[in-house]
Specification:
single chain, 364 residues, alpha/beta, Rossmann fold, Helix Hairpins, Heat Shock Protein 90, 3 domains, five-stranded parallel sheet, five-stranded mixed sheet, 12 strands, 19% strand, binds adenosine-5'-triphosphate, binds magnesium ion
Length: 364
């Protein structure tokens, strides 16, 4: 199959040389169709058209220099793989280019045609694998979303029916049966919660969640979330300490969503924290932001897991072995809801040293 490569290179000598070494490496098989642009803007114009499989990019161009050149190409065509072909043998820039998403960083004069050709082929192949992965992810999202939708109605029907049964329970109902009915009621609540989480994740990923801001005192939002979790804390003899400023902490936020974030962040130490442990909630006002932290004295989370716990469906196996497993959606939803409001959510923790989940929201 012929590869269509776009070479963005301003030096005519270099461009000619690259064309030649590629032709040699290709040994007349016609496997590469090479297009050429000598300015970034012209390269971007060609990219806007169809058919380019891979870009060979020089970073120093008349109208753009350094890593910014790569960033511009990436932004214009996020799915087209880019191999940087630079005159600059700079390890630092090479690493940064690859971190930004370049497939390879080759130094002109130090590579032969065969190497460039192979690098382009691999880049295209990786691009294909990545596209297939994205497609699978999209299908998975759609599947979860449609199944969750379909489950909503029957679960609501179970919940309603069990409510009627519980309200009309005869006095002589055996206690064993009464307990079973209660279990069905609880399980229906859990299932409804899980379905809501799945729908929320799907909506967040599709960018279909709207922010409804209103002016609120954040101390009230925190107190409400704490009240909701308190009965559960009692079941594991956990204590909660709040530290809120004396004065009102006004902010224009989506209070319902912040409440949900807090319930997620408080629910985790309730489940994974120490029996009889302590959970702290601190609200701090900063010059142009507010910061809310939830701290526990539980098992902690090793640093290598700090990114992964925010991925959907991800659970740290150790902390979950202590009790019932969650679905691994809480933190992904919490981060999504915070970022939607222009904020940040992160964790500070080490194994055995408790965890602090902190989020900041800009005050506008
Ligand atoms: N405070 C904490 N202490 C120790 N481990 C934690 C803490 N918070 C989260 N984790 C770990 O991070 C994982 C992901 O948390 P997350 O809230 O996303 O999912 P979950 O609690 O498992 O399920 P869900 O919140 O959807 O019910 C948890 O399974 C747990 O292993
Ligand atoms: Mg959770």
């Amino acid at each position: 199959m012929t590869i269509c490569a776009l070479l963005i290179e301003d030096n005519p000598g270099d461009a000619r040389l690259i064309r030649e070494v590629l032709r040699e490496a290709d040994a007349g098989h016609g496997a590469v169709e090479l297009r050429h642009a000598d300015h970034l803007t012209r390269g971007l114009e060609q990219l806007a058209g169809e058919g380019v499989d891979v870009v060979l990019l020089d970073l120093s161009l008349p109208d753009s220099q350094g890593l910014a050149t790569f960033v511009a190409v990436r932004a214009a065509a996020p799915t087209v793989p880019v191999v940087v072909l630079s005159g600059l043998d700079d390890e630092g820039i090479a690493v940064r280019a690859v971190q930004e998403g370049a497939q390879d960083y080759l130094v002109k004069g130090k590579v032969d045609g065969g190497t460039i050709l192979r690098s382009m082929r691999y880049a295209i192949e990786r691009g294909r694998v990545e596209a297939a992965r994205r497609d699978l992810e999209r299908q998975r999202d759609e599947f979860f979303s449609s199944v969750s939708h379909d489950l909503r109605t029957p679960v609501a029907a179970i919940k309603a029916a069990i409510g009627v049964v519980l309200a009309n329970e005869p006095a002589e109902m055996p206690s064993g049966l009464h307990r079973l009915l209660g279990n069905v009621d609880l399980a229906a609540d859990e299932l409804a919660g899980l379905i809501e989480d799945l729908l929320q994740i799907a909506r967040l990923r599709a960018g279909r969640v709207e922010v409804w801001r209103s002016e609120v005192d954040l101390r009230d939002v925190i107190s409400r979330a704490v009240r909701a979790i308190e009965p559960l804390l009692a079941t594991r003899a956990q204590r909660l300490e709040m530290s809120l400023p004396e004065q009102r902490v006004e902010a224009s936020v989506d209070a319902e969503k912040i409440g949900r974030v807090l319930r997620n962040l408080l629910g985790n130490p309730q489940k994974y924290g120490r029996e009889g442990g302590k959970i702290g909630v601190i609200l701090e006002r900063q010059p142009d932001a507010v910061c809310i932290s939830v701290t526990d004295d539980g098992p902690g989370i090793p640093p290598e897991e700090h990114d992964r716990i925010f991925e959907r469906f991800y659970r740290v196996s150790e902390s979950s072995s202590a009790g019932p497993m969650g679905s691994g959606l809480g933190l992904a939803i919490a981060r999504g809801l915070v970022e939607l409001q222009g904020g940040r959510l992160w964790v500070e923790s080490a194994r055995g040293a408790g965890s602090t989940f902190r989020f900041s929201l800009p005050i506008r």
